[in-house]
Amino acid sequence: MRKNVKKQAAVLLAAAALGLMTTACGGSKExxxxxxxxxxxxxxxxTTAAATEAPExxxxxxxxxxxxxxxxxxxxxxxxxxxxxxxxxxxxxGLDGGSSxxxxxxxxxxSPKGSVPxxxxxxxxxxxxxxxxxxxxxxxxxxxxxxxxxxxQAPAPEGAxxxxxREGKAKVAGTxxxxxxxxxxxxxxYYSVIAIGNxxxxxxxxxxxxxxxxxxxxxxGSKAFISGLSAVLDTVNGASVMDTVKALEDMGADExxxxxxxxxAQQSLxxxxxxxxxxxxxxxxxxxxxxxxxxxxxxxxxxxxATGAPDxxxxxxELQAEDEETYNSLVAAYKAWSAYGxxxxxxxxxxxxxxxxxxxxxxxxxxYEEAMDKSLEVAKKAQESFGSWDDFNxxxxxxxxxxxxxxxxxxxxxxxxxxxxxxxxxxxxxGPFSADWNMALEKEW
Length: 445
Prior knowledge:
Blueprint: H1 5-22, E1 38-40, H2 49-52, E2 61-65, E3 71-76, E4 80-87, E5 90-96, E6 105-112, H3 126-138, E7 144-145, E8 148-150, E9 162-172, E10 175-185, E11 189-197, H4 199-208, E12 210-213, H5 221-229, H6 231-237, H7 241-250, H8 255-273, H9 278-290, H10 292-303, H11 312-318, H12 324-340, H13 346-363, H14 368-385, H15 389-404, H16 414-426
Antiparallel strand pairs: 1-2, 2-3, 3-12, 4-5, 5-6, 6-11, 7-9, 8-9, 9-10, 10-11
Helix pairs in contact: 1-3, 1-7, 1-8, 5-14, 6-16, 7-13, 8-13, 9-13, 10-12, 12-15, 13-14, 13-15, 15-16
């Protein structure tokens, strides 16, 4: 079976991006991979197969490490690795057989449970995750597989709570081969490896396959800082529009795939933001940076004389006669103003500049360089306005509550969902908020 992994990877990425486009958040109300080195492994001592077969009977293997340093896959030697970074802590590897194993393609994916690429519904089990990842990888590819659960041949990595393996005959364009998938669940993350190809190649891959969960490292560089600014909405959407489309272009995706994403991005910008061309995109970005909903929040506070209130308790007592939405918006704005002065909820606006620039790039309204240049301006303004990721995120959450008119103390509303995301991402050692807030921000693209 000759199915190049770059095409498979492009299919997965396109599927993830399609999910992003259909759930893009932000508008009139919410106005809103570098390759890693491949190291040859000496033998395959970590595999179950090694315990039952003589070492000389095992195919040569190699270790492939994800771009974010979160996990490592042992698989067949000599595969060509392609990386895709969805977020600072969500990474995919394409592993292509190249000339040595032309019938072999592999994909591996690792991500926290709260930010699985592709904007999935809430997952209740490892089986749900397996179904979702296969859908991302194969839907629209022309490859069909009738999967059946099998005993995992790879050993459970340290830290795993559950492992699951599936196997089946793969068919495409009148040819058939073998497909094997291995899934791992830890307390906070999911990992997967899917291999498709000729029967012999996949059987060889099964003999040496293993997954090792690594610690990862703190996010570094201006790109990582910029990713942190839009990390909450990227998590809601399942990945970054900017990074996804850039990876598709770099990996040689079909023009039809890119055009589909462009049309969807154009529609999202038009429907949610009233942006229909390059000039409108830049005008909206500049408005968010100079005024945005932060000005609306300050105007509302001044209208009600809220900036004269000595404390929140006094203010809330004075607002009892107001409707619920106005009350909640005023409370959120007051909390932000009390903490950050005139910057108040501006993090809410700044975050969404990065989002709309990603959609603008996908839509063809700006180049990648233009989108990143504007995002760098945003990053520098964020540093000037706030002292830490905690400050930025609290301003963002207050801004979301102001916009939504929701109670920040209610555990069951959409503000609570955003608070949950911030807490989850903030607890990750290599998450999007692990980048040094005070780093020197420089152009890296």
